[in-house]
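ARCHIVE CARD
CATEGORY: sequence design from structure
SOURCE FIELD: tokenized fold
FIELD CONTENT:
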């Protein structure tokens, strides 16, 4: 049985080219090609797992690259549906460094959240993020190795603790001596119960409580 295209969807696709011609001037040689790709994508004829359409619009300022994109997005999906990334914001070394930090932070949060589902509760030291940027950014490949660097660096730290007979709960820190990540348990968390149960500690607490009681009676 052949699936029938809903009337509203068919009318939207059929009216796409006339709408673009009405809004965009001087691009009649481009518009039919864009429409053809968009129509096939919206009809589900593109390859599974791939975008419905990919475009590379080239030309000087003012020829209609952005306006064309806004026009077909508005016609197919409605207002305020276009997500714009202005890559000119990442032309300087400072902005590129900020982008690297954002990418590393995304993977770091994802990895910490995953480990939490496995019963490993970690907090992160401030120096971990710059460490991961240094490990995960390649001069030629950019941030492509970042995911693997984050997963490997943190995974090695967790595995090290578990194989040593401990747990993977604590603070993730950078070991500057070996240039790796390690997990450090807070001394208060690890030792406070043991300290508080020693005879000397109980005796000192008892003395302090007695002194406080005498001061209150006075």
């Amino acid at each position: 049985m052949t699936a029938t295209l809903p009337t509203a969807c068919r009318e939207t696709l059929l009216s796409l080219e006339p709408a673009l011609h009405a809004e965009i001037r001087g691009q009649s040689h481009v518009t039919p090609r864009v429409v053809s790709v968009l129509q096939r994508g919206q009809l589900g004829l593109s390859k599974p797992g791939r975008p419905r359409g990919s475009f590379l619009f080239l030309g000087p300022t003012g020829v209609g690259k952005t306006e064309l994109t806004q026009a077909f997005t508005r016609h197919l999906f409605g207002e305020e549906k276009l997500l714009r990334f202005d890559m000119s914001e990442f032309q300087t070394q400072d902005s590129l460094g900020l982008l690297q930090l954002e990418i590393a932070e995304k993977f770091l949060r994802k990895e910490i959240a995953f480990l939490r589902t496995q019963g490993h509760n970690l907090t992160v030291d401030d120096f971990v993020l710059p460490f991961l940027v240094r490990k995960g950014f390649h001069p030629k490949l950019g941030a492509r190795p970042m995911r693997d660097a984050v997963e490997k660096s943190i995974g090695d730290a967790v595995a090290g603790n578990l194989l040593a007979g401990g747990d993977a709960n604590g603070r993730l820190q950078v070991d500057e001596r070996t240039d790796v990540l390690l997990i450090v348990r807070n001394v208060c968390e690890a030792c406070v119960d043991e300290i508080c149960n020693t005879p000397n500690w109980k005796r000192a607490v008892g003395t302090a409580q007695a002194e406080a009681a005498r001061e209150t009676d006075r």
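CARD ANNOTATION: The chain has two domains: 7-84, 89-185. DSSP finds nine helices and three strands in the chain.
SHELF: design records, drawer C
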